[in-house]
Amino acid sequence: MIYGxxxxxxxxxxxxxxxxxxHFPDRVIEEGGALVVANHSSFLDxxxxxIAFRRPxxxxxxxGLFRGPFAWLLPRLGCVPVxxxxxxxxxxxxALALLKGGERLxxxxxxxxxxDGELLPPQPGVxxxxxxxxxxxxxxxxxxxxxxxxxxxRFFRFHRVEVxxxxxxxxxxxxxxxxxxxxxxxxxxxxxxxxxALELPPQExxxxxxxxxx
Length: 214
Fold this sequence. Notes:
7-stranded mixed sheet; 34% helix; 7 strands; 15% strand; globular
């Protein structure tokens, strides 16, 4: 109930303030485990991606945020605590358990928010998770979140935020002889390539209401 209520609030804010729109919603994975990967340039990214899913998904969140009332609230919103910049094996084990248990988990391969909205190089850790989880990897690209709330900004701007959902990433082009860190890096690069390839679809032409039906 708490997740559903917060999702509704985020959906309402997204529609009213940011004219939130999801492109290719039929590609969203609602059943079974899936690792959802997206670009990251704003604090708006997690909720704007999250409301593209009808069913609950999980998120990574800095462990330092789990204090006071947030220590009670964040786990109920599907947040998984993680120590940024550290080899956090406990969070990794929790993520793998969620994915193998049929849940959806949102991960930002860049590891941090971009300052200028451009894509950053991926962290190899995402490749490690991909090799261990055994679930589809769903790429998503968020457009407009940087313009609406860029990194370092204290107040948001009225700007449209659009989410483009891609097809599950195909890793078959990665050489089969790669092992270890080389394999993880190749998987991470493939993920970022899949995110970068997503573009907004062409705008539909405005229809003149005075035109008669064909």
